[in-house]
Specification:
This protein is an alpha/beta fold. The protein contains 12 helices and 8 strands. The chain has a single domain (33-397), classed as Alpha-Beta Barrel (TIM Barrel), CATH 3.20.20.210.
Length: 398
């Protein structure tokens, strides 16, 4: 394993035993400025595909090495090879995936927007898999790997309600479900310990915004049904190791739906039959309210005889802010959250991916490179703070 990142044996996917709280990242990390420039140069023909691949490989290896130094029990490649969290199934370009630029996906608080690709020719097929990233990272590290994957609900926005010619929307959604389930299965086969589904569009669906015409409360139920269709294609063991992540977005240090009340989303979110959830919290005005809402929903699931009550990893670091959280602050947040969420169902994560889109100037941080340094410092604080919280909660239970 030349140039590999050292580590222990690959984990089995089981959660920590005893009073230890689990902690894991969401997915993306800021790409170095050099990699962002390399991608733009490759798109304009100034850099060859081989040279771009070398730049991506260097960024991945640096990511894995720096992740290992944080002490994180799970590491990832930080999506260094991806254009965005939502576009990797389309291949290396829109043309590869048979798609074209489509309508607005989200308008962020700072005024910028991102668009949804639209399917230009049928049928829909995955042209790139998250499992390919897992396999490449598996060759570079023996540490347990986490992999984020696209939600079928995000892909569902690529075709209008009427379908695409003779290709009906029902046929399209069946292909989306099959592709997403295969993507997750292949991630586990390639060596991922856990996989999480990016579901940022869940909260956004509840925002009434004419600039994003797909959004609206009626969309959320269909999104949840699609995710459950994917989860139903997995084995029980695979499903237990699949999480669903929700947040109000993070791009250029700005959010797209932080104004949507979590009280509208949380009850619906837990209708998803995932093994666990990753819930943004640190950047909320009242993080305790998030924990109360989550705890109330978990108690309701228990009272209504749910087969399993999922674990919830609360966000304890805010990727949109350069301000560092201390380990002690993170400890206190988790200990406070344990007043509402049973410690055996609690864990920690980051509020969101640190940079879901490749080209991200990180204006509040000053540069992508500084934002990258900040991200690893936040992860190290999260890992240490979660350990301190585990120790304090165990001491209280003794």
């Amino acid at each position: 394993m030349s140039g590999a990142v050292a580590g222990g044996a690959v984990a089995t996917g089981a959660w920590p035993v005893g009073a230890e709280l689990p902690t894991e990242p969401v997915g993306s990390l800021p790409r170095p400025s050099a990699l962002q420039r390399a991608v733009l140069d490759a798109e304009t023909g100034l850099l060859s595909a081989a040279e771009l691949e070398l730049a991506q490989e260097a960024a991945v290896l640096d990511t894995l090495e720096r992740f290992a130094l944080t002490g994180s029990p799970l590491v990832s490649d930080g999506e260094q090879r991806r254009q965005s969290f939502s576009s990797y199934p389309l291949g290396t370009s829109l043309h590869d995936g048979g798609v074209e630029a489509g309508p607005v996906f989200a308008v962020f608080a700072d005024g910028h927007h991102r668009v949804i690709p639209s399917l230009a020719r049928a049928p829909f097929r995955f042209h790139g898999h998250a499992a390919d990233d897992v396999a490449r990272s598996r060759a570079l590290t023996s540490l347990p790997l986490k992999q984020a994957v696209i939600s079928p609900s995000m892909l569902s926005l690529m075709v209008p309600a009427g379908g695409l010619g003779d290709y009906s929307r029902d046929d399209f959604l069946a292909d989306v479900v099959a592709g997403c389930a295969e993507d997750i299965r292949r991630c586990f086969e390639a060596g991922a310990t856990r996989v999480s589904i990016d579901f940022t569009e869940g909260r956004l669906a509840l925002r009434d915004d004419l600039r994003a015409p797909w959004a609206g409360p009626e969309a959320l139920g269909g999104f949840i049904e699609l995710i459950n269709r994917v989860l139903a294609e997995l084995t029980d063991a695979q499903r237990a190791a699949v999480g669903v992540h929700t947040c109000p977005g993070n791009d250029n240090d700005s959010a797209h739906s932080a104004d949507v009340d979590y009280a509208e989303l949380i009850p619906e979110l837990f209708q998803i039959e995932a093994g666990y959830f990753l819930v943004q919290s640190a950047s909320e005005k009242d993080p305790d309210r998030v924990a109360r809402l989550v705890g109330r929903q978990l108690r309701l699931l228990e009272r209504t005889g749910a087969r399993t009550v999922p674990r919830v990893l609360l966000g304890v670091t805010n990727p949109t802010s350069p301000k560092l959280e201390t380990a002690e602050e993170i400890r206190d947040r988790l200990v406070q959250a344990a007043r509402f969420i049973p410690a055996e169902l609690l864990g920690s994560t980051d509020d969101c991916g640190f940079s879901p889109y490749l080209i991200d100037e990180k204006p509040r941080h000053g540069s992508p490179d500084f934002a990258r340094d900040v991200a690893f410092a936040k992860i190290a604080a999260r890992v240490r703070g979660t350990q301190l919280a585990s120790e304090e909660l165990a001491g209280r239970a003794a």
